[in-house]
Write a structure and sequence with these properties.
single chain; 91 residues; alpha+beta; 3 helices; 30% helix; HTH_17; DNA binding
């Protein structure tokens, strides 16, 4: 009997196939969520808006960016960030 193959990046979990365009979230127990409703972290928000995490922290403390908290963790909805960025962009 062969031993199961262990993945080097995730030694205790078997990799589950998901569509390439799907977004999963640990908040929703890895269920696939709609792209606009996807919850993202400060790091992901800073990458998305192309600003530093320090800038994200300032915007959160000044309440100029849409966010919410889950316990002590700050999270953003990607769709709300897109809408906010469009409304607040200078052309």
């Amino acid at each position: 009997m062969r031993k199961p193959e262990i993945l080097s990046h995730s030694p205790l979990r078997l990799k589950r196939k998901t569509p390439s365009n799907a977004i999963t979230s640990p908040i929703f127990d890895n269920r696939i969520v709609c792209d606009d409703e996807a919850l993202i972290t400060k790091q992901e928000a800073s990458d998305f808006l192309k600003v530093s995490i320090k800038t994200i922290d300032k915007m959160v403390s000044m309440k100029t960016i849409p966010y919410f908290k889950i316990g002590a963790c700050v999270r953003f909805k990607k769709g709300e960030l897109q809408k906010w960025a469009k409304e607040n962009s200078k052309e």
